[in-house]
Amino acid sequence: SMDLTVGLNAAGLLGGEYDAAIRIHGNTPISPEREIPCRLTVTGVPDVGAMPGSIDFDSVYVGFPSTRQLIVQNRGSGVLNVVDMRVSDQAYRVDRTSLTVPPLGNEAVSVSFVPASPGPATATLTIQSNDPDTPARAVELSGYALEPPDIQIHPSSIAAALSIPSSTRRSLVLENAGGSNLVFAVTTLLTPPAVT
Fold it and tell me: Is 10 exposed, middle or buried (0-12, 13-18, 19+ CB in 10 A)?
């Protein structure tokens, strides 16, 4: 008799069952070829990732949320189960807290900056999953909240009665009652008169 060593290698494979056969050829007249079934069961391992690794919302007006997309990645060979996504500051929100990502797949998550008061806001979004190496993946969040500008115009309308070719001038007062610089442009819209 002779012992043969059969090697099985799961490197580069996704989780699942793989069927194969080992063929042995010999010089026996009755069965010159024998086939031995072989099954490899691979236990996949998920590997969580996040793109981008941090999100900077820059400047956002209070009362006007800003939303960015976060891609949760599974770079592994097994199904990634995200069981929770939590943010450490109430100024930030995510549109879902759990999801499933197939091997080598991606899922998009919306992250929003919803500041209630002006000032800087930093937070950590923690993605908790079944990744055995990194069960908690952190994504840093940052943003700055500003009080929005608030334009006030006085008077609220202008009227004049002129005969041709007269002209006149009126004054408009623009006031910024808000907390940020007001940027504006002025244009005119002339409506044709009705013929009487």
Answer: middle
For the residues 80-92, what does the mean pLDDT come to?
97
| Residue 114, both tokens | 């919803």
Query: Is the bond preceding 155 in cis, omega lying within 30 degrees of 0?
Result: yes
Please say whether the dihedral angle defined by the alpha carbons of residues 89, 93, 99 and 103, taken in this order, is positive or negative: negative
Q: How confident is the model at residue 45 (pLDDT cuts 50, 70, 90)?
A: very high
Q: Is 153:172 a contact under the CB 8 Å cutoff? A: yes
User: Cβ contacts of residue 97 below 8 Å, gap of 6+?
Assistant: 84, 85, 86
pTM: 0.74
Instruction: Give, as one character, the DSSP assignment of residue 36.
Output: E
| Measured distance CA(84)–CA(144) in Å, rounded | 26
37: nearest Cα among 56, 20, 61? 20
Average pLDDT over residues 112-138: 97
List the structure tokens of 69: 């997309």
Mean pLDDT of the chain: 92
User: β-strand 16-25 against 33-42: which pairing, if any?
Assistant: antiparallel
What is the Cα–Cα distance from 91 to 78, expressed in whole angstroms? Answer: 34
State yes or no: pLDDT of 38 exceeds 60. Answer: yes
